[in-house]
Amino acid sequence: MLDRLRLHVYPKEPLTCAKLTQYASLKLETKRRAKPTLHLLHVGRRKEKLRSAEAGAAADPKHKESSAMEVSGLDSDGKEFKNAEEMWREQIGEDGEQQEKKTQWYREGISYWEGVEASVDGVLGGFGNVNEVDIKGSEAFLQMLLSDRFPNARNNQHLVALDCGSGIGRITKNLLIRYFNEVDLLEPVSHFLDAARESLAPENHMAPDMHKATNFFCVPLQGQREKNKKVGSKKVKIAKKGISADFTPETGRYDVIWVQWCIGHLTDDDFVSFFKRAKVGLKPGGFFVLKENIARSGTFLLSHSLI
Ligand code: SAH
Protein backbone atom coordinates (compact mmCIF):
# COMPACT_ATOMS: atom_id res chain seq x y z
CA MET A 1 0.00 0.00 0.00
CA LEU A 2 1.17 3.47 -0.78
CA ASP A 3 1.31 5.93 2.06
CA ARG A 4 -1.01 8.81 1.61
CA LEU A 5 0.52 11.55 -0.46
CA ARG A 6 -0.59 15.09 -0.11
CA LEU A 7 -1.33 16.51 -3.49
CA HIS A 8 -0.92 20.16 -4.35
CA VAL A 9 -2.00 21.50 -7.66
CA TYR A 10 -0.40 24.51 -9.21
CA PRO A 11 -1.82 26.82 -10.42
CA LYS A 12 -4.27 26.50 -7.57
CA GLU A 13 -7.11 25.05 -9.51
CA PRO A 14 -8.43 21.56 -9.52
CA LEU A 15 -7.68 19.41 -12.54
CA THR A 16 -9.65 18.37 -15.55
CA CYS A 17 -7.18 15.83 -16.63
CA ALA A 18 -8.86 12.52 -16.10
CA LYS A 19 -5.65 10.68 -15.82
CA LEU A 20 -4.15 12.87 -13.16
CA THR A 21 -7.37 13.04 -11.20
CA GLN A 22 -7.55 9.33 -11.45
CA TYR A 23 -4.00 9.02 -10.27
CA ALA A 24 -4.75 11.26 -7.37
CA SER A 25 -7.61 9.08 -6.36
CA LEU A 26 -6.58 5.58 -7.17
CA LYS A 27 -3.01 5.69 -6.46
CA LEU A 28 -2.09 8.13 -3.85
CA GLU A 29 -4.17 6.94 -1.01
CA THR A 30 -4.25 4.96 2.24
CA LYS A 31 -1.99 4.94 5.26
CA ARG A 32 -1.24 8.04 7.18
CA ARG A 33 2.38 7.68 8.09
CA ALA A 34 5.12 9.63 6.36
CA LYS A 35 3.58 11.99 3.86
CA PRO A 36 5.63 12.55 0.79
CA THR A 37 4.04 15.21 -1.32
CA LEU A 38 3.25 15.23 -4.97
CA HIS A 39 3.14 18.63 -6.55
CA LEU A 40 1.41 18.86 -9.84
CA LEU A 41 2.05 21.60 -12.28
CA HIS A 42 -0.38 21.40 -15.07
CA VAL A 43 -0.27 23.12 -18.35
CA GLY A 44 -3.42 23.85 -20.23
CA ARG A 45 -6.31 26.19 -20.72
CA ARG A 46 -7.55 27.78 -17.58
CA LYS A 47 -11.22 28.21 -18.31
CA GLU A 48 -12.18 24.62 -18.04
CA LYS A 49 -14.47 23.26 -15.44
CA LEU A 50 -12.16 21.58 -13.09
CA ARG A 51 -12.44 18.95 -10.48
CA SER A 52 -10.96 18.97 -7.08
CA ALA A 53 -7.85 16.95 -7.03
CA GLU A 54 -7.30 17.17 -3.30
CA ALA A 55 -5.92 13.73 -2.65
CA GLY A 56 -7.96 13.22 0.48
CA ALA A 57 -11.22 13.96 -1.27
CA ALA A 58 -10.19 12.02 -4.28
CA ALA A 59 -9.45 8.96 -2.19
CA ASP A 60 -13.19 8.66 -1.68
CA PRO A 61 -14.18 5.60 -3.72
CA LYS A 62 -17.28 7.32 -5.12
CA HIS A 63 -15.16 10.12 -6.46
CA LYS A 64 -12.80 7.54 -7.87
CA GLU A 65 -15.46 6.00 -10.01
CA SER A 66 -17.10 9.13 -11.25
CA SER A 67 -13.93 11.05 -11.96
CA ALA A 68 -11.74 8.49 -13.50
CA MET A 69 -13.67 5.85 -15.26
CA GLU A 70 -16.29 7.73 -17.20
CA VAL A 71 -14.10 10.07 -19.15
CA SER A 72 -14.04 9.16 -22.80
CA GLY A 73 -11.12 9.56 -25.12
CA LEU A 74 -9.70 9.48 -28.59
CA ASP A 75 -6.56 8.23 -30.17
CA SER A 76 -4.59 10.17 -32.72
CA ASP A 77 -6.22 8.17 -35.53
CA GLY A 78 -9.64 9.37 -34.38
CA LYS A 79 -10.69 6.12 -32.73
CA GLU A 80 -12.97 6.66 -29.76
CA PHE A 81 -12.78 4.99 -26.36
CA LYS A 82 -15.66 4.90 -23.91
CA ASN A 83 -13.31 5.25 -21.01
CA ALA A 84 -9.70 4.77 -19.99
CA GLU A 85 -10.30 1.16 -19.08
CA GLU A 86 -11.36 0.36 -22.62
CA MET A 87 -8.29 2.12 -23.98
CA TRP A 88 -5.97 0.20 -21.68
CA ARG A 89 -7.69 -3.08 -22.46
CA GLU A 90 -6.93 -2.51 -26.09
CA GLN A 91 -3.40 -1.27 -25.53
CA ILE A 92 -2.09 -3.66 -22.94
CA GLY A 93 -4.72 -6.38 -22.92
CA GLU A 94 -6.38 -8.32 -20.17
CA ASP A 95 -4.42 -9.91 -17.36
CA GLY A 96 -3.34 -13.03 -19.21
CA GLU A 97 -1.83 -11.37 -22.25
CA GLN A 98 -0.55 -8.29 -20.50
CA GLN A 99 3.11 -9.11 -20.36
CA GLU A 100 3.65 -9.24 -24.07
CA LYS A 101 1.46 -6.28 -24.95
CA LYS A 102 3.00 -4.19 -22.23
CA THR A 103 6.46 -4.96 -23.48
CA GLN A 104 5.29 -3.89 -26.90
CA TRP A 105 3.77 -0.67 -25.47
CA TYR A 106 7.09 0.29 -23.89
CA ARG A 107 9.12 -0.81 -26.87
CA GLU A 108 7.14 1.47 -29.15
CA GLY A 109 7.53 4.37 -26.74
CA ILE A 110 11.26 4.02 -26.56
CA SER A 111 11.78 3.36 -30.24
CA TYR A 112 9.92 6.55 -31.05
CA TRP A 113 12.42 8.56 -29.01
CA GLU A 114 15.35 6.59 -30.35
CA GLY A 115 14.53 8.08 -33.73
CA VAL A 116 14.43 11.65 -32.44
CA GLU A 117 17.31 14.07 -32.68
CA ALA A 118 19.01 14.91 -29.39
CA SER A 119 18.06 18.58 -29.33
CA VAL A 120 15.65 20.86 -27.50
CA ASP A 121 13.41 20.87 -30.54
CA GLY A 122 13.59 17.08 -30.64
CA VAL A 123 12.57 16.43 -27.03
CA LEU A 124 9.85 19.05 -27.30
CA GLY A 125 8.37 17.40 -30.35
CA GLY A 126 9.15 20.28 -32.68
CA PHE A 127 7.98 22.90 -30.18
CA GLY A 128 11.41 24.09 -29.14
CA ASN A 129 10.02 27.58 -28.75
CA VAL A 130 8.13 26.38 -25.67
CA ASN A 131 11.39 25.92 -23.81
CA GLU A 132 11.66 29.44 -22.50
CA VAL A 133 8.14 29.79 -21.22
CA ASP A 134 8.23 26.32 -19.74
CA ILE A 135 11.40 27.05 -17.80
CA LYS A 136 10.07 30.41 -16.66
CA GLY A 137 6.86 28.90 -15.34
CA SER A 138 8.69 26.07 -13.65
CA GLU A 139 11.14 28.47 -12.10
CA ALA A 140 8.35 30.53 -10.55
CA PHE A 141 6.87 27.33 -9.18
CA LEU A 142 10.19 26.05 -7.90
CA GLN A 143 10.99 29.33 -6.18
CA MET A 144 7.64 29.18 -4.44
CA LEU A 145 8.20 25.58 -3.44
CA LEU A 146 11.68 26.27 -2.12
CA SER A 147 10.76 29.32 -0.15
CA ASP A 148 7.60 27.74 1.30
CA ARG A 149 8.95 24.32 2.02
CA PHE A 150 12.71 24.58 2.24
CA PRO A 151 13.25 27.50 4.55
CA ASN A 152 16.85 26.48 5.10
CA ALA A 153 17.67 26.38 1.41
CA ARG A 154 19.46 29.69 1.67
CA ASN A 155 21.56 28.55 4.63
CA ASN A 156 23.78 26.28 2.69
CA GLN A 157 21.44 23.34 2.80
CA HIS A 158 22.75 20.79 0.32
CA LEU A 159 19.89 20.24 -2.11
CA VAL A 160 19.66 17.29 -4.48
CA ALA A 161 17.17 16.68 -7.31
CA LEU A 162 16.36 13.83 -9.65
CA ASP A 163 15.26 14.75 -13.19
CA CYS A 164 13.11 11.85 -14.46
CA GLY A 165 12.72 11.20 -18.18
CA SER A 166 15.31 13.92 -18.50
CA GLY A 167 15.83 13.66 -22.25
CA ILE A 168 18.89 15.71 -23.15
CA GLY A 169 18.94 17.37 -19.73
CA ARG A 170 17.02 20.47 -20.83
CA ILE A 171 15.34 21.03 -17.45
CA THR A 172 18.44 20.21 -15.45
CA LYS A 173 20.60 22.55 -17.47
CA ASN A 174 18.17 25.46 -17.64
CA LEU A 175 16.66 25.21 -14.22
CA LEU A 176 17.44 22.50 -11.70
CA ILE A 177 21.18 22.85 -11.63
CA ARG A 178 20.85 26.51 -10.72
CA TYR A 179 18.92 25.65 -7.56
CA PHE A 180 20.21 22.22 -6.56
CA ASN A 181 23.76 21.40 -5.56
CA GLU A 182 23.47 18.06 -7.28
CA VAL A 183 21.13 16.76 -9.94
CA ASP A 184 20.85 13.14 -11.06
CA LEU A 185 19.28 12.34 -14.42
CA LEU A 186 17.22 9.31 -15.36
CA GLU A 187 16.58 8.67 -19.04
CA PRO A 188 16.09 5.37 -20.89
CA VAL A 189 17.19 6.57 -24.33
CA SER A 190 20.95 6.41 -24.41
CA HIS A 191 21.66 9.00 -27.09
CA PHE A 192 19.66 11.55 -25.11
CA LEU A 193 21.48 10.69 -21.93
CA ASP A 194 24.85 10.88 -23.71
CA ALA A 195 23.95 14.34 -24.97
CA ALA A 196 22.95 15.36 -21.45
CA ARG A 197 26.20 14.04 -20.01
CA GLU A 198 28.19 15.96 -22.55
CA SER A 199 26.38 19.25 -22.27
CA LEU A 200 26.44 19.15 -18.48
CA ALA A 201 30.11 18.22 -18.26
CA PRO A 202 32.03 20.87 -16.29
CA GLU A 203 34.09 21.82 -19.34
CA ASN A 204 30.95 22.58 -21.35
CA HIS A 205 28.70 24.05 -18.74
CA MET A 206 29.36 26.61 -16.07
CA ALA A 207 27.16 25.67 -13.16
CA PRO A 208 26.99 28.04 -10.21
CA ASP A 209 28.89 27.36 -7.00
CA MET A 210 30.15 23.94 -7.93
CA HIS A 211 26.65 22.68 -8.59
CA LYS A 212 26.86 19.55 -10.70
CA ALA A 213 25.07 16.78 -12.53
CA THR A 214 26.20 13.73 -10.62
CA ASN A 215 24.59 10.50 -11.77
CA PHE A 216 23.19 9.51 -15.14
CA PHE A 217 20.86 6.53 -14.97
CA CYS A 218 19.97 4.90 -18.27
CA VAL A 219 16.73 3.26 -17.16
CA PRO A 220 13.02 3.74 -17.67
CA LEU A 221 10.64 4.72 -14.89
CA GLN A 222 8.69 1.49 -15.00
CA GLY A 223 9.98 -1.63 -13.36
CA GLN A 224 11.26 -4.41 -15.52
CA ARG A 225 10.48 -7.32 -13.27
CA GLU A 226 8.82 -9.26 -16.08
CA LYS A 227 12.00 -9.55 -18.03
CA ASN A 228 13.98 -10.66 -15.06
CA LYS A 229 11.42 -13.15 -14.00
CA LYS A 230 11.09 -14.80 -17.36
CA VAL A 231 14.42 -16.29 -18.23
CA GLY A 232 17.35 -16.34 -15.89
CA SER A 233 19.96 -16.02 -18.61
CA LYS A 234 18.23 -13.04 -20.17
CA LYS A 235 18.81 -11.12 -16.99
CA VAL A 236 22.51 -11.05 -17.74
CA LYS A 237 21.99 -9.75 -21.25
CA ILE A 238 19.77 -6.97 -20.03
CA ALA A 239 22.26 -5.97 -17.40
CA LYS A 240 25.03 -5.88 -20.02
CA LYS A 241 23.09 -3.41 -22.07
CA GLY A 242 23.12 -1.10 -19.11
CA ILE A 243 19.44 -1.48 -18.40
CA SER A 244 19.04 -2.56 -14.83
CA ALA A 245 15.92 -4.03 -13.31
CA ASP A 246 13.74 -1.64 -11.38
CA PHE A 247 15.01 1.82 -10.76
CA THR A 248 14.96 2.33 -7.03
CA PRO A 249 16.64 5.49 -5.88
CA GLU A 250 19.12 5.68 -3.08
CA THR A 251 17.24 6.05 0.18
CA GLY A 252 16.66 9.61 1.29
CA ARG A 253 18.85 11.22 -1.39
CA TYR A 254 16.48 13.69 -3.01
CA ASP A 255 14.80 16.91 -1.94
CA VAL A 256 12.87 16.99 -5.18
CA ILE A 257 12.06 14.30 -7.74
CA TRP A 258 11.04 16.16 -10.88
CA VAL A 259 8.93 14.26 -13.43
CA GLN A 260 8.03 16.23 -16.53
CA TRP A 261 6.48 15.31 -19.83
CA CYS A 262 7.25 11.63 -19.57
CA ILE A 263 4.78 10.08 -17.13
CA GLY A 264 2.27 9.48 -19.93
CA HIS A 265 4.51 6.68 -21.09
CA LEU A 266 3.60 4.63 -18.06
CA THR A 267 0.62 2.36 -17.71
CA ASP A 268 -1.53 3.05 -14.67
CA ASP A 269 -0.13 0.22 -12.57
CA ASP A 270 3.42 1.18 -13.42
CA PHE A 271 2.62 4.75 -12.50
CA VAL A 272 1.63 3.58 -9.06
CA SER A 273 4.62 1.36 -8.56
CA PHE A 274 6.97 4.08 -9.73
CA PHE A 275 5.79 6.42 -6.99
CA LYS A 276 5.90 3.63 -4.44
CA ARG A 277 9.45 2.78 -5.33
CA ALA A 278 10.66 6.32 -5.81
CA LYS A 279 9.33 7.74 -2.57
CA VAL A 280 12.08 6.03 -0.58
CA GLY A 281 14.43 8.32 -2.48
CA LEU A 282 12.91 11.43 -0.95
CA LYS A 283 14.43 13.08 2.08
CA PRO A 284 11.95 13.72 4.89
CA GLY A 285 9.97 16.73 3.71
CA GLY A 286 10.97 16.12 0.08
CA PHE A 287 8.65 16.51 -2.88
CA PHE A 288 7.66 14.96 -6.13
CA VAL A 289 6.97 17.54 -8.81
CA LEU A 290 4.91 16.21 -11.69
CA LYS A 291 4.43 18.51 -14.65
CA GLU A 292 2.13 17.39 -17.40
CA ASN A 293 -0.16 18.78 -20.05
CA ILE A 294 -3.87 18.37 -19.60
CA ALA A 295 -6.50 17.49 -22.16
CA ARG A 296 -8.49 20.47 -23.38
CA SER A 297 -11.95 19.10 -23.37
CA GLY A 298 -12.08 16.74 -20.44
CA THR A 299 -11.38 13.79 -22.69
CA PHE A 300 -8.12 11.93 -22.84
CA LEU A 301 -5.96 11.59 -25.90
CA LEU A 302 -3.84 8.62 -26.79
CA SER A 303 -1.21 9.80 -29.20
CA HIS A 304 0.44 7.16 -31.31
CA SER A 305 3.10 9.57 -32.44
CA LEU A 306 3.64 10.70 -28.84
CA ILE A 307 3.30 14.34 -29.73
N1 SAH B 1 11.57 15.84 -19.58
C1 SAH B 1 12.38 16.22 -20.71
C2 SAH B 1 12.16 15.30 -21.92
C3 SAH B 1 10.73 15.26 -22.42
S1 SAH B 1 10.56 14.22 -23.84
C4 SAH B 1 12.11 17.64 -21.09
O1 SAH B 1 11.07 18.18 -20.70
O2 SAH B 1 12.95 18.22 -21.80
C5 SAH B 1 10.01 12.70 -23.09
C6 SAH B 1 11.15 11.89 -22.50
O3 SAH B 1 10.60 10.76 -21.86
C7 SAH B 1 12.10 11.38 -23.56
O4 SAH B 1 13.41 11.72 -23.20
C8 SAH B 1 11.89 9.88 -23.52
O5 SAH B 1 13.03 9.13 -23.85
C9 SAH B 1 11.48 9.69 -22.07
N2 SAH B 1 10.79 8.42 -21.86
C10 SAH B 1 10.10 7.67 -22.73
N3 SAH B 1 9.64 6.55 -22.15
C11 SAH B 1 10.06 6.60 -20.87
C12 SAH B 1 9.93 5.73 -19.77
N4 SAH B 1 9.27 4.58 -19.89
N5 SAH B 1 10.51 6.06 -18.60
C13 SAH B 1 11.19 7.24 -18.50
N6 SAH B 1 11.34 8.11 -19.50
C14 SAH B 1 10.79 7.79 -20.68
UniProtKB/TrEMBL annotation:
GO annotation terms (biological process): methylation
One term of GO molecular function: N-terminal protein N-methyltransferase activity
Pfam families assigned to the protein according to its UniProt record, in alphabetical order: Methyltransf_PK
Lineage: superkingdom: Eukaryota
Source organism of this protein record: Citrus sinensis (Sweet orange)
Protein family (similarity comment): Belongs to the methyltransferase superfamily. NTM1 family.
Name of the protein this chain belongs to: Alpha N-terminal protein methyltransferase 1
Stretch list, region Disordered: 49-76
Assigned keywords, A-Z: Methyltransferase, S-adenosyl-L-methionine, Transferase
Catalytic activity of the protein: N-terminal L-alanyl-L-prolyl-L-lysyl-[protein] + 3 S-adenosyl-L-methionine = N-terminal N,N,N-trimethyl-L-alanyl-L-prolyl-L-lysyl-[protein] + 3 S-adenosyl-L-homocysteine + 3 H(+); N-terminal L-seryl-L-prolyl-L-lysyl-[protein] + 3 S-adenosyl-L-methionine = N-terminal N,N,N-trimethyl-L-seryl-L-prolyl-L-lysyl-[protein] + 3 S-adenosyl-L-homocysteine + 3 H(+); N-terminal L-prolyl-L-prolyl-L-lysyl-[protein] + 2 S-adenosyl-L-methionine = N-terminal N,N-dimethyl-L-prolyl-L-prolyl-L-lysyl-[protein] + 2 S-adenosyl-L-homocysteine + 2 H(+)
